[in-house]
Amino acid sequence: MWAMRLLVTGGAGFIGANFVHATVRERPDVQVSVLDSLTYAGSRESLVPVAEDVRLIEGDVTDAALVSALVSEADAVVHFAAETHVDNALADPAPFVHTNVVGTFTVLEAVRRHDVRLHHVSTDEVYGDLPLDAADRFTESTPYHPSSPYSSTKAAADLLVRAWVRSYGVAATISNCSNNYGPYQHVEKFIPRQITNILTGRRPKLYGRGANVRDWIHVDDHNSAVWRILTDGTLGRTYLIGAEGERDNLTVMRTILRLMGRSEDDFDHVTDRAGHDLRYAIDPSALYQELGWRPGHTDFEQGLRATIDWYEANESWWGPLKNAVEATYAGRGQ
Ligand code: NAD
Ligand code: TDX
């Protein structure tokens, strides 16, 4: 008899796979089913360590009949599935509207029909960006002001969730988290791209001058906060998840180079991202105070070192993806 039957959408991607691993490890009384269409960003290999414990259904989150059937067998849904890379959204926004907006609509209709608890996973990018020198950070009451095709589709999805809560009484919570790092992150993203560039004899690539600030959180901390919200959060509420990890890209770049035994100047400046958000910063005090949550990985350098070790030890996971990703970046001058 299971304490909870959980449906995880996007569970073969970076954060979803780490969420599934942690759930299997720490909550053996939870039955986990994963719905994932295994896009370029999802991988069966990411779930190999838990293959015996988890059911993986290969399917699209916009497939209403499939989603309805899976939701009808679940007590709760954690919705990670999304198109997630800002540079890809700039090149072709169509899949972002499809998965992020229509996919979330499809999940909402299914949880409404079957009266199932939903946690919707979102991003701090929905709030737009902040000036560099400002003391202010994003809070739950910051107005939505997304900049990119990616963040605007995530914002649209969040607003659908809020409307389904208010109009239909759907039992949902939302979380908006800052930039994650850790194992199983696709090599298109900033930190794994630089680590694997160094490991394959390429020079790391910094957009523009590297003054842009991101608020880094270890993926296991994001996921422990999602679990806390799922079990103890107030229905209808939005929670911001962050771990006070603000750093500019140049600093992160130099830290990676130093930890990997290279000169801190051994990188290239490349074409900046169009519309590049300057700074994200989360004020996590509501989550700390209301739910008593705290991050476990408070030493960024230590987390980064462990992440570098993981990429060094797992070239079989990322190696087959690397050349194609770099060819796409080269085509964009990045
Ligand atoms: P990811 O790109 O690594 O993984 C996304 C997963 O969704 C993949 O497994 C992919 O196959 C799956 N997917 C995509 N389209 C699908 C579809 N139509 N049907 C079914 N599955 C589909 O992304 P991630 O970094 O793990 O992000 C997960 C969630 O967390 C997203 O909702 C993202 O917006 C949010 N988020 C990410 C970060 C971050 O720093 N990575 C920060 C805050 C919030
Ligand atoms: O090669 C690079 N060089 C570089 O300087 C890459 C890939 C990125 N960058 C910069 C752009 C950003 O300022 O590094 C920063 C981080 O870039 P990404 O890893 O692409 O992340 P970001 O655009 O900040 O978005 C991420 O965090 C929020 C995730 O991809 C989103 O899914 C999440 O919602």
Automatic annotation (TrEMBL):
GO molecular function, one term: dTDP-glucose 4,6-dehydratase activity
Stored InterPro entries: dTDP_Gluc_deHydtase (IPR005888), NAD(P)-bd_dom (IPR016040), NAD(P)-bd_dom_sf (IPR036291)
Entry keywords, A to Z: Lyase, NAD
Entries under SUPFAM superfamilies matching the protein: NAD(P)-binding Rossmann-fold domains (SSF51735)
Cofactor annotation: NAD(+)
Family: Belongs to the NAD(P)-dependent epimerase/dehydratase family. dTDP-glucose dehydratase subfamily.
Protein name: dTDP-glucose 4,6-dehydratase
